[in-house]
UniProtKB/TrEMBL annotation:
Organism encoding this protein: Auraticoccus cholistanensis
UniProt cross-references to Pfam families, sorted A to Z: AsnC_trans_reg
InterPro entries in alphabetical order: Dimeric_a/b-barrel (IPR011008), Tscrpt_reg_AsnC/Lrp_C (IPR019887)
Domain of life from the UniProt record: Bacteria
Residue intervals of the Transcription regulator AsnC/Lrp ligand binding domain: 7-76
Protein known as: Lrp/AsnC family transcriptional regulator
Residue ranges of the TM segments: none
Length: 78
């Protein structure tokens, strides 16, 4: 069984398209979409374990240039 989460991403002004394009290239990213509202990009990620999920978000997603803040929302019912 895998673990999934939604990562809500805020970016610098005018950086959402570049950020979502970079995030889409990361292994474990199911989809990354530019959106409007309080967040600029919504990302669905999948990993084998909760630890792997944490590493994906912290070591890969959060290091993408242009990101100012993320909120991770684990899916509790698949």
């Amino acid at each position: 069984m895998s673990v999934r989460a939604y990562v809500l991403v805020q970016t610098g002004v005018g950086q959402s398209a570049a950020v979502s394009e970079q995030i889409r290239r990361l292994e474990g990213v199911v989809v990354a979409r530019d959106v409007t509202g309080p967040y600029d990009v919504v990302v669905e990620v999948e990993a084998a374990t909760v630890d792997d999920l944490g590493r994906l978000v912290v070591a890969q997603v959060q290091t993408v240039p242009g990101i100012t803040r993320t909120v991770t929302c684990p899916v509790v019912n698949l």
